[in-house]
């Protein structure tokens, strides 16, 4: 960790705890800042605040009193999830208090080069692939950022001979100033988080900030399958490296005749990728770009891309029982995510498990994607809607009370060499606290099936 003087004796307000706020408070304190933490959760229900107080850091909990900002703070480190319309943030802006997110702090203290990954979909898979590939090549890579490991905490413990592989959300990127990754990736840009950003334009602007401090010495990896990202290539100072599944890219990764190439060098066959789906082919191309730019051997790339079983709950391969294959894609909380998952399978031998929270939408746009499915198991509040769609298309459909029973039912109905895919197309909150809890129940159900004797 760089022993920077930027924060010495500066009054800093950390707004919002969670993992990133807790990490930021500790790092700032070590750097000599006079830190105050403000979190809405009451003190007696707030173990993180209790720990920080015990370490000598001032905490204000149970609400966000505007009067706190009268204490002449010189900086606010804001939890990314707190919107800029929050009264505390609005008041800070009025007082001209600079506002950053914790990833900016991580950059300022990091001795390690950073590979930053953002995008609407595929961030976590791409981030994990890159880290696994670099580590397989004996380059020390550490996961950080939006993937669950606070960036400032990881940066504080990393050295110059390591690389931070940092997943970055649009929320985090709105709070950067000097942040500059050595390699940046934008996997894709779709409509998302409009309730936070207010418009698609604002959302895309936030994503594009990942490259704003980059120079020609840095590399910006863009998805050339998307016209809007291809057009952006001429609006950056970074050296652009593209990837595409549909055409040759001179300076980047592409697919031709069933083979994957990087700058005209053959890397591997598409058919050898362990993860199914066109979206995962894009993720693999993005990971190959970052890996080759980092000097990684083809052997390490192929080793990971042919064996990677997926990030948990994101098209995660769970193995076989009686030659029936199971995949857990509980992270598919909307129709688009399920459409992408379905693109990687043969519908004629596929059983789709779907359903969840009813947000009032229909599912007609799924019709083309689920045509000719072997069968469907539906559950949750949207089960009736999904059942009606399946019946309209002539797809065998069965009801289940939850995903555990859905796994059992699919196994009972499936034939040898069929695939069972949990890809709900719905949020989980009607029956489960999180998509992780839903996916864990499915994983446990499949594990029990595998333990049973044939």
TrEMBL record:
GO terms, molecular function: ATP binding; UDP-N-acetylmuramoylalanine-D-glutamate ligase activity
Keyword Cell cycle: yes
EC number of the protein: 6.3.2.9
Xref: InterPro entries: Mur-like_cat_sf, Mur_ligase_C, Mur_ligase_C_dom_sf, Mur_ligase_cen, MurD
Residues reported to bind ATP: 119-125
Pathway annotation from the record: Cell wall biogenesis; peptidoglycan biosynthesis
Enzyme class: ligase
One GO CC term on file: cytoplasm
One GO-annotated biological process of the protein: cell division
Stretches assigned to the Mur ligase C-terminal domain: 313-425
This protein's UniProt keywords: ATP-binding, Cell cycle, Cell division, Cell shape, Cell wall biogenesis/degradation, Cytoplasm, Ligase, Nucleotide-binding, Peptidoglycan synthesis
Catalytic activity: UDP-N-acetyl-alpha-D-muramoyl-L-alanine + D-glutamate + ATP = UDP-N-acetyl-alpha-D-muramoyl-L-alanyl-D-glutamate + ADP + phosphate + H(+)
Domain Mur ligase central residues, every copy: 117-290
Subcellular location: Cytoplasm
Function: Cell wall formation. Catalyzes the addition of glutamate to the nucleotide precursor UDP-N-acetylmuramoyl-L-alanine (UMA).
Family: Belongs to the MurCDEF family.
Alphabetical list of HAMAP family matching this protein: MurD
PANTHER family listed in its UniProt record: UDP-N-ACETYLMURAMOYLALANINE--D-GLUTAMATE LIGASE (PTHR43692:SF1)
Record-given protein name: UDP-N-acetylmuramoylalanine--D-glutamate ligase
Native organism: Pseudolactococcus hodotermopsidis
Taxon lineage: Bacteria, Bacillati, Bacillota, Bacilli, Lactobacillales
């Amino acid at each position: 960790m760089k022993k920077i003087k930027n924060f010495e004796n500066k009054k800093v307000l950390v707004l919002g705890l969670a993992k990133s706020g807790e990490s930021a408070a500790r790092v700032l304190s070590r750097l000599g800042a006079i830190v105050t933490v403000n979190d809405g959760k009451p003190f007696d229900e707030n173990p993180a605040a209790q720990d920080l107080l015990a370490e000598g850091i001032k905490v204000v909990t149970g609400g966000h009193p505007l009067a706190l900002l009268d204490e002449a703070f010189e900086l606010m480190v804001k939890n990314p999830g707190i919107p800029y319309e929050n009264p505390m943030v609005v008041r800070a802006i009025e007082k001209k208090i600079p506002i950053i997110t914790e990833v900016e702090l991580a950059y300022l203290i990091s001795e390690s080069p950073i590979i930053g990954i953002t995008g609407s979909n595929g961030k976590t898979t791409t981030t994990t692939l890159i880290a696994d590939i670099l580590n397989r090549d004996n380059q020390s890579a550490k996961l950080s950022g939006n993937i669950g490991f606070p960036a400032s905490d990881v940066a504080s413990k990393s050295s110059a001979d390591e690389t931070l592989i940092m997943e970055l959300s649009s929320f985090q990127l709105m709070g950067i100033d000097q942040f500059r990754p050595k390699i940046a990736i934008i996997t894709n840009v779709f409509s998302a988080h409009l309730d936070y950003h207010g418009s698609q334009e604002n959302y895309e602007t936030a994503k594009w900030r990942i490259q704003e401090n980059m120079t020609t010495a840095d590399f910006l990896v863009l998805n050339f399958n998307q016209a809007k990202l291809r057009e952006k290539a001429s609006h950056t100072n970074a050296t652009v490296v593209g990837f595409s599944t549909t055409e040759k890219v001179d300076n980047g990764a592409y697919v031709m005749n069933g083979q994957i190439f990087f700058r005209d060098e053959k890397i591997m066959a598409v058919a050898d990728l362990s993860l199914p789906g066109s979206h995962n082919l894009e993720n693999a191309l993005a990971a190959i770009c970052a890996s080759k730019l980092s000097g990684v051997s083809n052997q390490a790339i192929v080793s990971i891309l042919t064996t990677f079983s997926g990030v948990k709950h994101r098209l995660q391969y769970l193995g076989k029982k009686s030659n029936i294959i199971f995949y857990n894609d509980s992270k598919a909380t909307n129709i688009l995510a399920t459409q992408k998952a379905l693109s990687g399978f043969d519908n004629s031998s596929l059983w789709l498990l779907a359903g969840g929270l009813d947000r009032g939408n229909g599912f007609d746009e799924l019709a083309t994607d689920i045509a000719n499915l072997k069968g469907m198991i539906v559950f949750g509040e949207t089960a009736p809607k999904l059942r009606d769609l399946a019946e309209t298309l002539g797809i065998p459909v069965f009801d289940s009370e939850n995903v555990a029973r859905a796994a059992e039912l699919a196994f009972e109905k499936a034939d040898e060499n069929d695939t069972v895919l949990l890809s709900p197309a719905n949020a989980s909150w009607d029956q489960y606290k999180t998509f992780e809890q839903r996916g864990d129940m499915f994983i446990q159900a499949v594990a029990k099936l595998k333990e049973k004797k044939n």
